[in-house]
Design goal:
- By secondary structure, the chain is of the alpha+beta class.
- It folds into 4 domains: 94 residues, Nuclear Transport Factor 2, Chain: A (Roll), CATH 3.10.450; 70 residues, Nuclear Transport Factor 2, Chain: A; 147 residues, Elastase, domain 1 (Roll); 158 residues, Neutral Protease, domain 2, CATH 1.10.390.10.
- It is built from 9 helices and 25 strands.
- Strands 1, 2, 3, 4, 5, 6, 7, 8, 9, 10, 11 and 12 form a 12-stranded mixed beta sheet that branches.
- A hairpin with a 5-residue loop joins strand 11 and strand 12.
- The longest helix is centred in the middle third of the chain and has 23 residues.
- The protein is globular and about 75 Å long.
- It starts with 9 loop residues before the first strand and ends in a 5-residue tail after the last helix.
- One of its GO terms (cellular component) is extracellular region.
- Extracellular zinc metalloprotease.
- It holds the Pfam family Peptidase_M4_C.
């Protein structure tokens, strides 16, 4: 079941600052690209402190984005061994200037003992103890280095084939066995079951198609076509399952209905970030998180948690809130995950307001992206879930934030002392003016009395996303957000463009200068 891909390799031996004391680099690109790769690798060495001939860098891919910037992705080998978690990306501008180096692990491999206590055959025997299905054929084991944590570990990656516990689904179980102690460190399934398409009867979005997963005896609410995110019933602590792949009944009398809305919301949010911004999952590297519904008893809130990388939704008390699984809330909560993996805006003061504003902005844009007639796009937050007995009410209003009774329309030095859900009003008001303009429907009064003509929600969304992922930092305040969005507009549309000038005008219209 293992796939082997054939590629012609060109080897480039690089001479860095330490002369011969430099790693070898292997590239799948043509020889005439060697200069670019040499530049990228030298930068990688400088930034990662790599100066040992025992390390080898292997170029996995080279991607050039719409701005002409090049992103070179490397894998690492040490003393000939594949290094799990040793991968990183070097980002360089169109002109060849270093932009950044992206990596998760900076574990030093220097001096690591790569002599195992036992051989691969013994590793297979140890791995077989955790194989729950039916084994077929011999296993295999490769000696590797697990460098995902601060302390790298020599391990065997054993691969066992057979069938999963249902007796029908093939299995290619990967088991990571410590090559010194024999302890099983981790296991994962290499066979990814085919995606199914289910029908969901939601509370807010009508009847929708859902990405689901075929399992023995039916289906589970797991979208294997979108990073395998799944939806859990918090009350039972189990992933929703169903026999016929038809979920919910469009009412709260079926526990699966809230699961439908949450799952659909995560599905649409995933597609929005992928198709509009080219983002690979919520964390940017394929990670998508998961959803939990029916949290607590009559719980009037929903929240994102970084530790589980997941969204959690309450059912509401039926008076102040109905189940908090509407489309814009799903987009809002998942966007907290995007922020946590990019700017990491601290959740207090003005940076906290920007954090909340970012989620409101993308929650609205997700709603527009869905183009669902049952919940059409708007710049209201939570209009489907808040005070069900009061028509037209919403939790927050981006065109005039003060309508909620606590959010300011205009910036002042006291904004940082407000709750983050209120101080978000400045960013929300700015974005509405940038996207829709002051004379849109509904109209949006400006703080300086000057009219603003919007550039459209799509361009405004691209500017905010680039500012978030490229220029915002954890402590960004509104003045710095103005600079960041101006830089993003300049990158995307030019310093003399209408888009750049409108960003400037929209910030001035909310008193941020």
């Amino acid at each position: 079941m293992k796939r082997h891909w054939l590629a012609a390799l060109t080897t480039l031996t690089l001479v860095g600052c330490d002369g011969a004391d430099s790693p070898t680099v292997t590239s799948s690109r043509e020889v005439n690209d060697g200069t670019e790769l040499t530049l990228a690798v030298n930068r990688a060495q400088q930034n990662l402190g790599m100066r040992t001939p025992e390390e080898e860098l292997v170029v996995r891919s080279v991607f050039k984005d719409d701005n002409g910037e090049e992103h070179v992705r490397f894998d690492k080998r040490y003393k000939g061994l594949r290094t799990i978690g040793g991968d990183f990306v070097v980002h360089q501008s169109e002109g060849g200037a270093l932009k950044a180096v992206s990596l998760n692990s900076q574990a030093s491999l220097r001096g690591l003992d790569v002599k195992p206590v036992f051989d691969g055959a013994a590793a297979v025997v140890l791995a077989e103890k955790v194989f729950a299905g039916k084994r077929v054929g011999p296993g295999s084991a490769e000696l590797v280095i697990d460098a995902r944590e601060d302390l790298p570990v020599l391990a065997y990656e054993a691969i066992l084939e057979g069938f999963q516990e249902d007796g029908a689904t093939p299995s290619e179980l990967h088991v990571l066995v410590d090559a010194k102690t024999g302890q099983v460190r981790e296991k994962w399934e290499g066979v990814h079951t085919a995606a199914a398409t289910g029908t969901g009867k939601s509370l807010y979005s009508g009847t929708v198609s859902l990405g689901t997963n075929s399992i023995s005896g039916g289906y589970e609410l797991r979208d294997v076509s979108r990073g395998s995110f799944y939806t859990v019933n918090y009350a039972t602590n189990a992933v929703f399952t169903d026999a016929d792949n038809v979920w919910g009944n469009g009412a709260t009398t079926d526990a699966a209905t809230a699961g439908v809305d949450a799952h659909y919301g995560q599905q649409v949010t995933y597609d929005y970030y992928k198709n509009v911004h080219g983002r690979n999952g919520i964390n940017g590297t394929g990670g998508v998180g998961y959803s939990r519904v029916h949290y607590g008893t009559r719980y009037n809130n929903a929240f994102w948690t970084d530790s589980c990388f997941c969204m959690t939704y309450g059912d509401g008390d039926g008076t102040t809130f109905t189940p908090l699984t509407s489309l814009d809330v799903a987009g809002h909560e998942m966007s907290h995950g995007v922020t946590s993996r990019t700017a990491g805006l601290v959740y207090s003061g003005e940076s906290g307001g920007l954090n909340e504003s970012t989620s409101d902005i993308f929650g609205s844009l997700v709603e527009f992206y869905a183009a669902n007639a049952n919940d059409p796009g708007d710049f209201l937050i939570g209009e489907e879930i808040y005070t069900p007995s009061k028509a037209g009410d919403a939790l927050r209003y981006m065109h005039k934030p003060s309508l909620d009774g606590k959010s300011p329309d205009c910036y002042s030095s006291s904004v940082g002392g407000l709750d983050v859900h209120a101080s978000s009003g400045i960013g929300n008001h700015f974005f509405y003016l940038l996207a829709q303009g002051s004379n849109a429907t509904p109209a949006s009064p400006t703080c300086n009395g000057l009219a603003v003509t919007g550039i459209g929600k799509d361009k405004a969304g691209k500017i905010w996303y680039r500012a978030l992922t490229t220029y915002f930092t954890s402590s960004t305040k509104y003045a710095a957000a103005r600079t960041a969005t101006l830089n993003a507009a300049k990158d995307l549309y030019g310093a003399t463009s209408t888009e750049y000038n409108t960003v400037n005008a929209a910030w001035a219209a909310v008193n941020v200068k």
